[in-house]
Amino acid sequence: MKNWTKGIFAAGIMAAAMFQPASAETIKVGSKNFTEQFILAEMYAAVLENAGITVERKINLGGTLIAHQALVAGEIDLYPEYTGTALASVVKGEMSTDAEKVYTQVKDFYAKQFNLTWLKPSGINNGYVIVVRQETAQANNLKSLSDLAKVSKTLVFGGGAEFPDRADGLPGLKRVYDAEFKEFKQFAKLGLRYDALEQKDIDVANGAATDWQIGSKNLVPLADDKGLFPPYYVAPVVRQDVLKANPKVAELLETVGTHLDNEKMRVLNAKVETDHEEAKDVAVEFLKENGLLPK
């Protein structure tokens, strides 16, 4: 994975704290309707406010299309989005496992069609992931899906109702990795899969890469070493007029992304989901710990 964000340092964002926006208008920060989005939006809002920019929060707008429509209409000025989600839901392009190709396709489409700018992606790739218990990984020396395929016929897989038929579900695991499982058990809710893994009712499950349960329940995400799953890198999507009026906004937001990855995002999600901390508090604490806000 090419590191698009290399070379942007925390010092830049601290120096920008003295910046005053070229426009007196408030910047409206939005988010979709789940925990990770709340945290990311609060991070964006906090670094902008620290730079002297007035921010209005419009958190928990709804799903992808609702947030996108709000951005296009100017009801919000920016929000965090995922490359794979944008490609499938907005661009409606052919899915690819090439992260840079997907990013470029989405970025170009948004710029031409909507006058929206995709900033540089963060280190978060919240795509599909296959996980096993730590003891299963150790007993079978599992680090990748290729490793899993060697022992898959002895393991029980748990997944959602659509997973047996999805191109990147069981058929994809068979096609790309030649992986077939002893049994498939269906679970309507994601949380139930993780519970079943913990209780040893299943041995393998599919989830999302930043699910808090992966870290909290000592589960091991297996590397997609042959590129079955499409990329879902998160990046700020911003109205072009806002960036023109406030040139420092891009650097401020992109610097946040250089400090984030899947493992860190799992921890942050867990603080909200299991420790019941407020997303704003979690975001600010993380920014302070990483030198992006003064302590």
UniProtKB/TrEMBL annotation:
It comes from the Bacteria. Residues 1-24 form the signal peptide. One of its GO terms (molecular function) is transmembrane transporter activity. Keywords: Plasmid, Signal. Transmembrane segments: none annotated. Gene3D superfamilies: Osmoprotection protein (prox), domain 2, Periplasmic binding protein-like II. The keyword Zinc does not apply. The keyword S-adenosyl-L-methionine does not apply. Residues 26-289 form the ABC-type glycine betaine transport system substrate-binding domain. GO terms for cellular component: ATP-binding cassette (ABC) transporter complex. It holds the Pfam family OpuAC. This is ABC transporter. It comes from Rhizobium ruizarguesonis.
